[in-house]
Amino acid sequence: MKNALKVENLRMEFGGLVAVKDVSFELGEGEFVGLIGPNGCGKSTIFNCISGLLDQTTGTVEVFGQDVSENRPDEIQKLGLTRTFQLTRLWRQMTVVENLMVPPRKQFLSPESEAPMHRAYSLLSVFAVLASLSVVAYYAIGNGVFWSLFNLIAALGLLTGVIAFRLIEGKSEFDAATDRIESAFLPPLFVLHALFRPGSRAAEEERLAKAYSVLDQLEIPHMAHNLTSELSGGQSKLVDIGRSMMGDPQLLLLDEPVAGVAGPLALKIFNNLRKIVDDTGISVLIIEHNMDFILRQGVDRIIVMKEGEILMQGTPDEVRGNRAVIEAYLGAAGEPQEVEE
């Protein structure tokens, strides 16, 4: 089985506090794994390090075989990882199906037309550089040797500055800067393309059909046109999971998706997740605080944490019978003791 996720010797320190202590574990493709432990044991911190929201102190994280230890969250997401948070933040003045229509990337262009647009952008960049050099050459020739040297030095200085920025700040910072420039110029072109090319409506219809399909998977198609402000906490959790599914994730990290949810609905959420894993083959790592609940919900394996460290890993039956796990949760040996009279 190939690994969807590999965490090795992950350590996260906040000043003098060590929140995660050299944690290592793997998640195979198509696995449904629970990450459990008492409050404050570092579960959400691990999620933040995996998804790029926190820069770990030491250790490595691999997503589908690629080291993402120093990657930005958007770069990690492009590899197929999606995560949710403990608190759902839905767009409350939009309907359920509208909430699901927002997350998919590259909405203004179909895959076939996106590449030509980016090539056109690259060509425009080349023409802009050539035009700039032409202006420099014109003024150099027309203003004598002094201005020729001045413009040459200025051009070389600009080029040196770009190279130095990439070398000093690093590839990710350089790419981030170019991404910001691209995000400023490309979206207007994409919008115009979508408005004046009716063919883009077909892609919109496909996304809408997919949104209804995801709602069917989660067994809430009847809520499609409800405002999310009208939903209960459990229903909001389902919609949040639905939004995460709209990005075609291959690795899904869920942070306590049933926290505060009533028993029957929490059971329904877990059953739907198990079905999604079985039907699609995606990998799911789920944080849950309630050990008794997750032990009964058909996960493949469970990783148990205590005070920033992994206490044990195993099947639900192995975890259920482990004395150290019982002590971690009950704070005692787990057996009645005789009281002296």
Structure description:
Residues 5-332 form the ABC transporter domain. Keywords: ATP-binding, Membrane, Nucleotide-binding, Transmembrane, Transmembrane helix, Transport. This is ABC transporter domain-containing protein. This protein is of the alpha/beta class. It is 50% helix and 18% strand. It has a six-stranded mixed beta sheet with strand order 6-7-8-3-9-10, with helices on both faces. Strands 2-1-4-5 form a four-stranded antiparallel beta sheet, with helices on one face. Strand 1 (3-14) and strand 2 (17-28) form a beta hairpin. The chain is globular, with a radius of gyration of 26 Å. The relative contact order is 0.17. The model is unreliable at 165-171 and 332-341 (pLDDT under 50).
Keywords for this structure?
P-loop_NTPase; transport; 341 residues; Rossmann fold; four-stranded antiparallel beta sheet
Task: Summarize this structure briefly.
With 341 residues, this protein is α/β, with parallel strands linked by helices.
Largest sheet: 6 strands, mixed
Arithmetic mean pLDDT: 77
How would you classify the quaternary structure? single chain
**CATH superfamily assignment of the largest domain?**
P-loop containing nucleotide triphosphate hydrolases
Which CATH C-level class of the largest domain is it? Alpha Beta
Poorly predicted spans: 165-171, 332-341
The CATH architecture of the largest domain would be 3-Layer(aba) Sandwich
Fraction of helical residues: 40-55%
* Helix vs. strand class: alpha/beta
How much beta, percentage-wise? 15-25%
CATH third-tier fold name of the largest domain: Rossmann fold
Order of helices and strands: EEEHEEHEHHHHHHEHEHEEHH
Q: How are the strands of the largest sheet arranged?
A: 6-7-8-3-9-10
| Radius of gyration, CA atoms, in whole angstroms | 26 Å
Count of folded domains:
2
| First and last CA, distance | 58 Å
- What is the count of DSSP helices, taking H or I runs of 4+ residues? 12
Give the overall shape, derived from the CA principal axes: globular
Number of strands: 10
